[in-house]
Amino acid sequence: MPKLVDTGRKVLFSDEILQNPYPTYTRLHEEGPLHYIDVGGKWAVWSIFSHAECASIAKDPQLSAKRAKQMLLSLPLSRQAEFSELARMLSLWLIFMDPPEHTRLRKLLNKGFSPAVVESLRPQVEIIVDQMLEAVEHGKEVELMGEFANPLPVRIILEMLGIPQELRDTFVNWSRAIAVFRGNPNRTVEDARAAQDALIQLTEFFRQTVTERRRHKGNDLISLLIDIEEEGDVLTEEELYAQCIALLFAGHETTRNLIGNGMYTLLQHPEETAELRDQPELIRSAVEELLRYESPVQFTARVLKEEIEICGQRIPKAWTVLCMLGAANRDPRQFENPNQLNLKRLNNQHLAFGAGMHFCIGAPLARLEGQVAILKLVQRFPKIKLVGARPEWASTFGLRGLMSLPVIM
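-> structure tokens emitted (409 positions)
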């Protein structure tokens, strides 16, 4: 058995790390690219911190993305069978598939998320953001996550899916239940039950919605998914429900955290914020830098199909490897002055959306929403500032985001 570098609770999954993981990432970068982590004393994983190795692992066919069942390992062995349906439903998501299933589904779904299709949404996204900000008064204290960053992405994805906006809060609650389960290595039975209940309810909702949409198709994404076909391949009913849920979840969680983390970062760097306000053409590179600097997704996992060597260490078959994307995005071997915010950073090959075949299919949409929302906030409210010294971070280590962000507009 390899020697432990440290325990998961001390290194990666403590409240201290939740508040600010980057000093620990810096220290571990200095110690080496690979670390053995005991996750809460229940199971152990190898964790990769280097940018080069994380990017390589994401593209290596010797590692599998089929990791839904591994998410149950932190639960008591006697309770894991209760959540077999949770693991099965998650295994239908594109991000938890390997080729050839992944290849077939990705090819079909790409039609709905091509750069041209997403860019055509920019005027619509700008209108929605303007509508949400019109009611906000200058000088007023606002909880930016609850009043803007949370509702904006779910509002947009619901419009894309053709789902009534009245259901927005319900979908946010379901999404958060799944996020708590997915983002925590130390998952509890209660977390698993809430996530399973949310997935069951979401599946039933989309079952009814798809049935209705087949009778009355429109220009929405669900209608497109029903119709897409390539070389004889189509989405099965179960795949259709699962991808709708995954798109809703990813479309909400990643983008809410991009907006929240991005604004929090800018408000801590007033000179850079002023620079962006004066030079709005920087917004595209600025969003890429914010994604790198405060990554919404801090790690992703892979399971070894066979024993392989990583960073000089032989790792047995069936073990889990964590790719620490947040750490890779602060790797000094890849980025000059990695702990410095530079909105003009060139050749910014961050891993916030992953890499390889599982590169986030919704990345163009998240980027678009982040660009529009962040630029309009800093331009429309030039005196925006933080309230209090330290906001509250959500207790989801893998999905880094704020619970609240009080500001004065």
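The chain has one domain: 6-408.
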